[in-house]
């Protein structure tokens, strides 16, 4: 039985009539950029994320970029960030002339290793950018303590983790900013690019509003050098249809993840991700570590059975060609290169059936590692 890594058709088809209705409403309104639906989505997301303010933006990467700009991060400033993450995390830092400082991650949670971060703080360090990778919160109480000790800002990369919690509190609400992505594959995915910043700081929110529209307020008067980072009305309207269903999507993902973790506990060649105390993951990805250099063979085995899989991520950012001579700290990383050779994500999407999940589990065991 083939099992896709993700099937958005199953999620979108039950909502098709609602999508068509909001499309027609926005079409007739002629309010295509920002507008009432963006404002309404901002209010709904802010409330959902336990934050006072939200600012709709053109993508999750642009959300990170605007957060850095609003905090005054610029040339020569250093920002601590994991190397094991999506390009946008560090790319946003480098685009401003700041220096990404590569920090290792923990081997069982895939999130930032603060012990390594401590060793890399200098008087140029201005911020830390923890990534809630694959849907699980980083240890945010420790990140906050770190930021207080060293006097740095916190930008949470929440691209894969909207709705995840730490100590019962939503990620994105701990730092100076939380950056969300609405890319179609995310737990709350749109129909193209889109993103948002959340914050509890009114002044930072106001600055982000200006920056997303060329630093302009009022019209044609520019206080800052911003950019065109605006969110389209149609994307916001469509996301508002999906937002009320987000918790049910999370619940279904958790059921799949819990079944994987329980049923693969005795597998000698597979390591399942660990959930830290106080955290509740939303499982944007369920990512295994395949040991003994067999990851590529494992992927080929799954693919031959029609089971979707992918590698997030095959190379640490510190090893990417574009970052050579730009970042620092990569030479000390040990976990990141190891994970890049071992990780593979398997289907965990909310609409996956129990039979499909059983097919995935059978394939993992059939690969030949069983004790």
Average pLDDT confidence is 96
Second rung of CATH, namely the architecture of the largest domain: 3-Layer(aba) Sandwich
Kindly state the percentage of residues in helix: 25-40%
Q: Report how far apart the termini are.
A: 25 Å
Total domains: 2
* Annotated CATH homologous superfamily of the largest domain: Type I PLP-dependent aspartate aminotransferase-like (Major domain)
Q: Please state the overall shape, judged from the principal axes of the Cα atoms.
A: globular
The level-1 CATH class of the largest domain: Alpha Beta
β-strand number: 13
Cα gyration radius (Å): 21 Å
CATH topology of the largest domain: Aspartate Aminotransferase, domain 2
Task: Count helical runs.
Answer: 13
SS strand fraction: 5-15%
User: Mind describing the biggest β-sheet?
Assistant: 7 strands, mixed
Q: SSE string, helix = H, strand = E?
A: HHHEHEHEHEHEEEEEHHHEEEHHEH
Uncertain spans, ≥5 residues at pLDDT below 50? none
InterPro entries: DegT/StrS_aminotransferase (IPR000653), PyrdxlP-dep_Trfase (IPR015424), PyrdxlP-dep_Trfase_major (IPR015421), PyrdxlP-dep_Trfase_small (IPR015422)
Protein name: DegT/DnrJ/EryC1/StrS family aminotransferase
GO molecular function, one term: pyridoxal phosphate binding
Family: Belongs to the DegT/DnrJ/EryC1 family.
Short structural description:
The chain is of the alpha/beta class and 371 residues long. The chain has helices at 8-12, 16-29, 36-48, 60-70, 87-95, 114-119, 140-150, 202-211, 233-242, 246-263, 295-304, 335-342, 354-366; strands at 53-57, 78-82, 99-103, 125-128, 153-157, 165-166, 169-170, 177-181, 195-199, 270-271, 279-280, 286-290, 343-346. A seven-stranded mixed beta sheet has the order 1-9-8-5-4-2-3, with helices on both faces. A three-stranded antiparallel beta sheet has the order 7-6-11, with no helix packed on it.
């Amino acid at each position: 039985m083939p099992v896709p890594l993700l099937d958005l058709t199953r999620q979108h088809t039950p909502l098709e009539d609602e999508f068509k209705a909001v499309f027609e409403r926005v079409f007739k309104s002629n309010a295509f950029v920002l507008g009432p639906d963006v404002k309404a989505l901002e209010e709904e997301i802010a409330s959902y994320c336990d934050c006072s303010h939200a600012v709709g933006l053109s993508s999750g990467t642009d959300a990170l970029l605007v957060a850095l700009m609003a905090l005054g991060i610029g040339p020569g400033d250093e920002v601590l960030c994991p190397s094991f993450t999506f390009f946008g995390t560090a790319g946003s830092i480098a685009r401003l002339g700041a220096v990404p400082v590569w920090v290792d991650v923990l081997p069982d949670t895939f999130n930032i290793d603060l012990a390594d971060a401590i060793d890399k703080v200098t008087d140029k360090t201005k911020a830390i950018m923890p990534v809630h990778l694959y849907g699980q919160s980083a240890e945010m109480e420790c990140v906050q303590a770190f930021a207080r000790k060293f006097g740095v800002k916190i930008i949470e990369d929440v691209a894969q983790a909207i709705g995840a919690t730490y100590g019962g509190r939503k990620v994105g609400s701990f730092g100076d900013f939380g950056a969300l992505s609405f890319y179609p594959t995310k737990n709350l995915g749109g129909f193209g690019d889109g993103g948002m910043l959340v914050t509890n700081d009114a002044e930072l929110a106001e600055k982000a509003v200006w920056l997303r529209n060329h630093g302009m307020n009022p019209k044609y008067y520019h206080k800052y050098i911003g950019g065109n980072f605006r969110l389209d009305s149609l994307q916001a309207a469509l996301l508002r249809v999906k937002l009320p269903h987000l918790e049910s999507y999370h619940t279904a993902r958790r059921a799949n993840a819990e079944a994987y973790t329980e049923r693969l506990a005795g597998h000698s060649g597979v390591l399942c991700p660990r959930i830290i105390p106080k955290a509740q993951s939303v499982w944007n990805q369920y990512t295994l570590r395949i040991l003994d250099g067999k990851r590529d063979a494992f992927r080929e085995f799954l693919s031959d059975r029609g089971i979707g899989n992918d590698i997030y991520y095959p190379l640490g950012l510190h090893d990417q060609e574009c970052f050579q001579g730009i970042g620092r700290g990569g030479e000390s990383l040990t976990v990141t290169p190891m994970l890049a050779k071992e990780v593979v994500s398997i289907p965990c999407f909310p609409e996956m059936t129990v039979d499909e999940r059983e097919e995935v589990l059978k394939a993992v065991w059939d690969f030949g590692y069983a004790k």
